[in-house]
Design a protein that fits this description.
Elements (H helix, E strand, L loop, with lengths): L23 E6 L2 E6 L30 H160 L5 H29 L1 H6 L5 H6 L6 E5 L8 E6 L7 E7 L10 H6 L1 E2 L5 E2 L2 H10 L2 E9 L4 E11 L8 E8 L28 H4 L12 E2 L18 E2 H4 L5 E10 L3
Antiparallel strand pairs: 1-2, 3-4, 4-5, 5-7, 5-13, 6-7, 8-9, 8-13, 9-10, 11-12
Keywords: Angiogenesis, Coiled coil, Disulfide bond, Glycoprotein, Secreted, Signal
GO cellular component, one term: extracellular region
GO biological process, one term: blood coagulation
Length: about 475
């Protein structure tokens, strides 16, 4: 160790040895020198029982030729010296012990230093490790914060969407309640109408009963009159004729009343065409529901119940130009216009009706001067859409020309968007409307409606060539069909 031991140089002087003959022993140890003065050995007689012990002993037995007093002094001085020595030794010991203790402390301190250094090193390591951990933790925290903010943004978006949906639902609810209000209003109106209808029906039935009573009274009167044959027979006959006429009128009225009271029933029965409606007893022209054969839904058509015995189903009608006839394939397929005015019933309906059994076609025309003409075909039908509604007609007659103005059998239907004619041009666009154009053919009842008298030849007008040539201005046209066996 770097701590130099402070050594005290001690000189042991044997107090008992004063004379110069006493020998001095010097021991050099480092910077210290130890001087021992040993008692004279030549004055001491060797004795057999001389031994070196730690115990206080006489160095030599008293020789007989020596002074006993002097020997005793020597012993005393020796004892004192020994005591001194012992004391020194003790001091030395304590000193050494002290030194050793301080050394130990030093050692301990240095150990502590080493430990401290090691601890410092470990501490530094720990610090750097914890710094690393802290860095990682911070990273994780940022990531978590990022995630959290993203989730928060999403939540915000969701809540926005939810708000919008709620608003929407609120609007829907308002709409529903509004509709409910409207619905209840309509229901009230409907029930009012119903009660009115029932009342009307009751009135009509009452009228019918009254008429029946009247009829009975009249017939009784007739029999009475017939009974009194002695009266003026000519007068009687005339009266009878008048009465019979009245009775017939009354009967017709009663039938009419019956028709009125059973009209709802008539409506619920669906007829195939106007001929069936006519046969059921309805003789008034007007708009009726029919259901063509193989068709799932009813169609409104105009029934002509007067012309040539009635029962005609009108498939085309022009009279004032109110409806645009320059339409596409789909419109001509499904039909368009208003059955109570101008309309085209629809190619599908025409096909279904005219192929269910044999049909005749009646074409009725009127020009600007009011002249009327008709064309009549004994047989008429058109194919289905997969054959482009090809036309088939035969057995022509009538006043609108000596030759048929309809195209040849097998001519396909064309519209502005489906060109099936035999012309390199597009007849449906040149002549306008949908028709059985050949190239482009002598007729087109679906052309443009021109009102009034005019000398201008128009190729895209309503045309029926063999009646009046290309310049005909037609102010009315009707196409209608009826079963051959009507
Ligand atoms: C013992 O030592 C002391 C000094 O420390 C000295 O005065 C004394 O005379 C010595 N005694 C003997 C017997 O040498
Ligand atoms: C946080 O998220 C954004 C995208 O929302 C991304 O661009 C960015 O890199 C992210 N930051 C961290 C530290 O992950
Ligand atoms: C019968 O009626 C005719 C015509 O009204 C009349 O001229 C004639 O006098 C009448 N005869 C009798 C007997 O009333
Ligand atoms: C109606 O349907 C039947 C069976 O599908 C068929 O035989 C008949 O020709 C159809 N009639 C018309 C007019 O299409
Ligand atoms: C019907 O017309 C279309 C074009 O408009 C054509 O492609 C098709 O071949 C025609 N069908 C027949 C059976 O000719």
């Amino acid at each position: 160790m770097g701590h130099p031991l402070v050594l005290v140089c001690l000189a042991f002087l044997s107090t008992a040895v004063i004379d110069s003959e006493k020998r001095q022993h010097r021991v050099q140890h480092g910077p210290c020198s130890y001087t021992f003065i040993l008692p004279e050995v030549e004055h001491c007689l060797p004795s057999k029982d001389f031994q070196v012990t730690n115990s206080l002993q006489r160095d030599s037995p008293p020789s007989p030729d020596q002074d006993p007093a002097r020997g005793e002094r020597m012993v005393e001085s020796l004892e004192a010296a020994t005591e001194n020595n012992t004391r020194w030794l003790q001091k030395l010991e304590s000193y050494i012990q002290e030194n050793v203790r301080s050394g130990m402390e030093e050692m301990k301190r240095s150990t502590v230093h080493t430990h401290t250094a090691a601890m410092l090193e470990i501490g530094t390591n720990l610090l750097s490790q914890s710094a690393e951990q802290t860095r990682k933790l911070t990273n994780v925290e940022t990531q978590v914060l990022n995630q959290t903010s993203r989730v928060e943004i999403q939540l915000l978006e969701y809540s926005l969407v939810t708000n919008r949906l709620e608003k929407h639902i609120l609007q829907q609810n308002q709409e529903i309640s509004r509709l409910n209000d409207k619905n209840s209003f309509l229901e009230q109106r409907f029930s009012a109408l119903e009660t009115r209808h029932v009342k009307e029906l009751q009135g009509i039935q009452r009228e019918k009963r009254q008429l029946q009573e009247l009829l009975e009274r009249q017939s009784r009167l007739v029999t009475l009159l017939q009974g009194s044959s002695s009266l003026n027979s000519t007068l009687l006959q005339r009266q009878q004729a008048v009465l019979t006429g009245t009775v017939q009128q009354l009967l017709a009225m009663v039938t009419h009343c019956n028709d009125i009271s059973t009209q709802p029933k008539v409506e619920s029965v669906i007829f195939m065409d106007c001929a069936e409606i006519f046969r059921s007893g309805v003789t008034e022209s007007g708009v009726y529901d029919i259901r063509p054969p193989n068709s799932t839904h009813a169609v409104k058509v105009f029934c002509d119940m007067q012309t040539r015995g009635g029962g005609w189903t009108v498939i085309q009608h022009r009279r004032d130009g109110a409806v645009d006839f320059h339409r596409d394939w789909r419109d001509y397929k499904m039909g368009f216009g208003d059955p109570s005015g101008e309309y085209w019933v629809g190619n599908d309906v025409i096909h279904l009706i005219t192929t269910s059994k044999e049909y005749t076609l009646h074409v009725q025309l009127k020009d600007a001067e009011g002249n009327e003409a008709t064309s009549y075909y004994d047989h008429f039908y058109i194919d289905a859409e997969d054959k482009n509604y090809s036309l088939h007609s035969r057995g022509f007659s009538g006043t609108a020309g000596r030759t048929s103005s309809l195209s040849h059998p097998g001519t396909m239907f064309s519209t502005k968007d489906r060109d099936n004619d035999r012309c390199s041009c597009k007849c449906a666009q040149m002549a306008s409307g949908g028709w059985w154009f050949e190239a482009c053919g002598p007729s087109n009842l679906n052309g443009i409606y021109y009102a009034g008298v005019s000398n201008v030849v128009r190729y895209n007008g309503i045309k029926w060539y063999y009646w009046k040539g290309p310049g005909l201005i037609t102010t009315m046209s009707t196409m209608m069909v009826r079963p051959v066996d009507f």
